Amino acid sequence: FQRVGENTTITVNARVIAATNKDLKKAVANGTFREDLYYRLAVYPIAVPPLRDRKEDIPLLCAYFLKKYEGEFARKVKSIHPEAMELLLSYLWPGNVRQLENTLYRAMINSETECIDKDSLLDAGGNTENKSDANEKKTDNDVHKTDRIGFDPESVPEKIIPFKEVEKRTLLKAIKVTNGNIPQAAEQLGLSRSTLYRLVKKYGLR
Question: Widest CA span of the chain, in angstroms?
Answer without folding.
Answer: 76
